Amino acid sequence: MPEQDEIITLVDEDGNEHDAIIYSIVEFDGKNYAIVIPVGEEEEEEEEAEAFVLRIDQDDEEGEILVEIDDEEWEKVKDACMEEMIFEEEDQD
């Protein structure tokens, strides 16, 4: 499984490569998801960085791949992540 803070190279549908950092890995509904932030030429503040959620799946050779998710799955994962963040903040108080 990819590691948090690991820099990876993503290949888009046009074959273009983009470097990104794995910000976090979360588990939801029995699946693992990577929250990735593109690595820009200029460093951005964490609050301004655009993040993407990709599902971690297995390819035909049993290797791990990151897969784009549809809007419905994204909403479910986003809601679960927000709930988790709220509970973590409450635990710190």
Q: Would you write up a description of this structure?
A:
Belongs to the UPF0473 family. The protein is of the alpha+beta class. It has one domain. It is globular. It is built from one helix and five strands. Strands 1-2-3-4-5 form a five-stranded antiparallel sheet. The longest helix is centred in the C-terminal third of the chain and has 22 residues, at 71-92.
Structural topology:
Elements: E1 7-11, E2 17-28, E3 31-38, E4 52-58, E5 64-68, H1 71-92
Antiparallel strand pairs: 1-2, 2-3, 3-4, 4-5
Family: Belongs to the UPF0473 family.
Protein name: UPF0473 protein SAMN05660649_04883
Organism: Desulfotruncus arcticus DSM 17038
List the domain count as a whole number.
Answer: 1
Largest sheet: 5 strands, antiparallel
User: What is the H/E order?
Assistant: EEEEEH
User: Separation of termini?
Assistant: 32 Å
Neighbour order of strands in the largest sheet = 1-2-3-4-5
What is the overall shape?
A: globular
User: What's the number of helices?
Assistant: 1
Which regions contain 5 or more consecutive residues with pLDDT less than 50?
A: none
Pfam families: DUF1292
Protein name: UPF0473 protein SAMN05660649_04883
Family: Belongs to the UPF0473 family.
InterPro entries: UPF0473
